[in-house]
Amino acid sequence: xxxxxxxxxxxxxxxxxxxxxxxxxxxxxxxxxxxxxxxxxxxxxxxxxxxxxxxxxxxxxxxxxxxxxxxxxxxxxxxxxxxxxxxxxxxxxxxxxxxxxxxxxxxxxxxxxx
Amino acid sequence: xxxxxxxxxxxxxxxxxxxxxxxxxxxxxxxxxxxxxxxxxxxxxxxxxxxxxxxxxxxxxxxxxxxxxxxxxxxxxxxxxxxxxxxxxxxxxxxxxxxxxxxxxxxxxxxxx
Lengths: 114, 113
Description:
The complex is a heterodimer. In chain A, 0% of the residues lie in helices and 53% in strands.
């Protein structure tokens, strides 16, 4: 089964700083990749996704992620964060031709200081 | 447009009690999932279903049972609750198809004393 690793579980940044969150997965076949965000007290919402085509995908709120197949990675980036980006971020991997289970990483808790 | 609805929102159980969490979606999605979220553990898949009448085990299925008798509903049961099942439970659904994202419910906060 596929698994997902996220590093730097707690990240503290100042506003306008750049953010990069790493995501590595283990699965040898075709994958669909997702980043979800969970704002305090809310449920998860989709930030962006990749399933084919251009490996650089752009999502909502200025986020983007790059799929590097050779590194089994799907890192999330935002050039300039805002206080409202304080949230927990989860990377997820689905094997559409495998078991169709969506596996999540343990999350990155991001705090942006005004 | 309700999306994914979970009931109840909160519940406190005593050890050994049973309960059922209900998830309902009105988007005609094929796939439905139950996750639990615990601090530092992310979301862990309990059980999932790829269609009406079918269920499968996820990462942490022990102590839980599920049923998908109707396409729109996915029930999660705890037959004999344990303190280790204190968690926030999220239901999610998605349609078939490559890259289809999950739609999440608002969660159920369960405390087992």
